[in-house]
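Deliverable D5.2: sample structural annotation.
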Amino acid sequence: MATAQTTTTVIHEARATFTLAIFTDVSDDAAAEALSGEAAEAALAYLAEMSPDLRGAALLDGGGAVLAATGEAGPWARDSAALLEAADRAEEEPVEQIHIGTTQGEVFAVRHAGLAAVAVTDRFALASLTLFDLRSLLRDLAGGRPPR
């Protein structure tokens, strides 16, 4: 049976090993160059597969251009820009994540490494899981890895 000291040591070792990989800074230019339209489309397909509450989503580059979307790119680009700009006005620095719940559904947005993911879900989607999925997706794309 493991003691509390052994458990704490293992947790700290795991944190030290994996934290660097989780928080590795990828420049905005590197993320944009690494992401092809095909990779963005595959990422959205993966997101739709693992998120049954998803109504639609888009992946955007740092300039707001739509890399992939579950509908027409124009409305996603316009509406995502408006959402991110409104949220940014509330803080001194750009926001990293957004969650808005309404009686009609929920909206989520996450930024990472010069990329952004915006998703619309049914009501009562599990916010923590949706935000985790979006952030993981962006980390994989920014790192040049296929979605897991």
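Annotation notes: Helices lie at 4-22, 28-34, 37-50, 73-89, 127-142. The longest strand covers residues 54-60.
The annotation will be released with the project's public dataset once the embargo ends.
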